[in-house]
Amino acid sequence: MSFRCEHCGTENNEVQMAGQIRPEGTMYTARILARSDLDRQVVKSETSTVIIPEYELTIPPSKGQLTTVEGIIRDVVRDLSLDQPLRRIQDEPTYTKIQSLIDKLRLILADDVDEEAEENKNEIGEVKTASASQSDKPMPAFTIKIDDPAGNSFIEFKENMADPKWNLRMYHRTREQNVALGLVAADEQTDSAEAQVSGNQDAQSKGDEAGREFAVGPDGRSEEIFEFPGDVIIMSTNCERCGYRDNEIKSGTAISEKGTRITLKVEDTEDLSRDLLKSETAGLTVPEINLVLQPGTLGGRFTTLEGILDQIYEELSEKAFVTGDSGTTDAFESFLAKLKLIKNVEKPFTLILDDPLSNSHLQNPYAPDPDPNMTVLNAWANKAGLIPSDAQFTDVYGLDDELLAMVPQPVKAVVLLFPIRGALKTARKAEDERLRAEGQVPIDPTLIWIKQTISNACGTMGLLHSLMNSNVAIAPESPLAKFIDEAKGKTPEERAHLLETTPLFADIHADAASSGQTAPPENLDTDLHFTCFVQAPTASARETQTETGEMRIIELDGDRDGPIDRGKSTDFLKDVAAYIRDHVIPQSPSLELSMVALAAPLD
After folding, report:
1. Are 234 and 302 spatial neighbours (Cβ–Cβ below 8 Å)?
2. How many Cα neighbours within 13 Å face the side chain of 108?
3. pLDDT per position as a tens digit, 294-328
4. Which of 90, 203, 258, 542 is most buried (CB neighbours < 10 A)?
5. Considering the domain 19-179, what is its CATH architecture?
6. Which fold has domain 260-355?
């Protein structure tokens, strides 16, 4: 509502919420570092509390307003100044304290004292004050927070949610807050402590084969434990009497020694169905549209990738200001349009989930193999024994020279994911038959090749082949170092049996495959396949230990009959890209091709 009387100067810009109470409360925080930040628009509902910690100032819930940060400060100064003459007479200590606060706030507003401002009154008694954001006077920095249990308040961000001076945190309301909002009756008390203990003892615990269990208590609150690499407890409340529903996600494990960053390249709509667990400590970034959610934003969520993007779009589109500077409005509408494009996967994008406590996860549909579009390969390799300072896996974004130039050098191995179907499947069979009948040029006998005998483990084979045959630094006594020592002198089939019977390696395989996901599906039927390319000298050069001998590209695929020579190599990465471009893509025109390189670590 907006009202202004031309006769007496009375104004009213009260906001009354017509929407529903949100499932979670919100805490908006903005750092006011420059006078331009005072122009940030603010929606303050009647249930919100405004806090300015630097001045120990708390404004309790009052009428709703559509205003600015400057408007809130002016209202405080006006309201506190109203009774100051009376306080000066009746309670001088209180007057002194309040006047000290008023003087500090006036430094923000850059206003002159009341006696001088009195001279600027217009004909209807309104004091004309210049906008504080236009003043050139220095301003003390401060923080403004709006805590709204109903979730209906808002502080404007600049340009987009990547604004470094703006933050949104969502939280679960306390019982007292639910009572204040009218969601729970004030006299609706819980049972006595003894009854609660008895009820908890009677709670039913159930489990299923998916690796989760839950308990349902007498208050209708259920706790479900999902076994990810670390347990996560999802607590939900569903009141049968009033229909109130709520859910909350908490970690069920100790704080991890290291954080987790999950990077997913989203290229088609199938990726939107991936289960996503975002803890309350996780941040989310989509760099293509400069979308940044700081840790705490949206709280904890167990949903899908589509669900989290829909929620972000809904939150922003409902809170967007439709009035104000046209340039700001157009920029925000442009941002929402870009968000809608990636939400519908009309353009590829990258999702980055960054959790310092390692309690967030993203489903891997390729499990038990590592996800080619999700960066967990380095975690697998490092656990196996790769020394990170020597080499790391990095994405290869395309086969053009400009994109290949972005990969750090030297490149020591390439792992390729591609679909085996149609013409390519037929060509592979024909090539196997030809090689059995005609043979090929001798291949470096020191290469370690493993015959794949484990179902759906071609990704593991690809990573092992790349690490064992690229002369990268391996930590002594690591699982990979021990495996290499034991694999020497054994046949490919014996190496496969060794891999199957090495418990430590099996644990790493299962852990890395499920990293960032729920329990891996069994008997996954997929035609996607991993293979590996390494560089090696000719067999004769290896036998004579000739250092200047010709180098060859060798493909190591556990699903074939053995290593395959793919020709001469002068520039390894470019030569592999040329082979893929000339021999794989023509027979597999699919967007599901994905490539990573084992290369020098990024600085």
Report:
1. yes
2. 28
3. 776 777 778 888 988 988 888 777 655 544 555 55
4. 542
5. Sandwich (2.60)
6. Jelly Rolls (2.60.120)
Q: 3-class SS at 431?
A: helix
- Rg of the chain in Å (alpha carbons): 32
3-state helix, strand, coil in the chain (%, to 5): 35, 25, 40
Domain segments of the chain: what residues?
19-179, 260-355, 364-599
For residues 391-402, give the mean pLDDT.
Answer: 82
- Pick from 203, 264, 192: nearest CA to 235: 203
529 is catalytic: yes
Instruction: Point out the catalytic residue in the list 361, 465, 529, 532.
Output: 529
Q: Is 532 a catalytic residue?
A: no
d(Cα 265, Cα 54) in Å, to the nearest integer? Answer: 42
> Is the fold of 19-179 the same as that of 364-599?
no
Average of per-residue pLDDT values in the chain:
76
Q: Say if residue 221's pLDDT is above 60.
A: no
What are the tokens at 534?
């390494």
Q: What is the predicted pLDDT for the residue at 329?
A: 64
Lowest mean pLDDT segment, chosen from 161-165, 322-326, 367-371: 322-326
Whether residue 534 contacts residue 556, with contact meaning beta carbons closer than 8 Å, is answered with yes
Give dist(CA 355, CA 283) in Å, integer: 6
185-199, 287-301, 439-453: least confidently modelled range: 185-199
Helix ranges restricted to H, 558-599: 572-579
- Cis peptide, bond prior to residue 410, ω within 30 of zero: yes
Q: In what order do the strands lie in the sheet with 154-155?
A: 65-68, 41-44, 154-155
Mean of the pLDDT values across residues 422-427? 85
Angle, helices 377-384/458-468, rounded to nearest 10 degrees: 60
Beta pairing class for 25-32 and 57-59: unpaired
CATH of 364-599, one of 3.40.50.620, 3.40.532.10, 2.40.50.870, 2.60.40.10: 3.40.532.10
- Catalytic annotation, pick one of 361, 458, 465, 509: 458
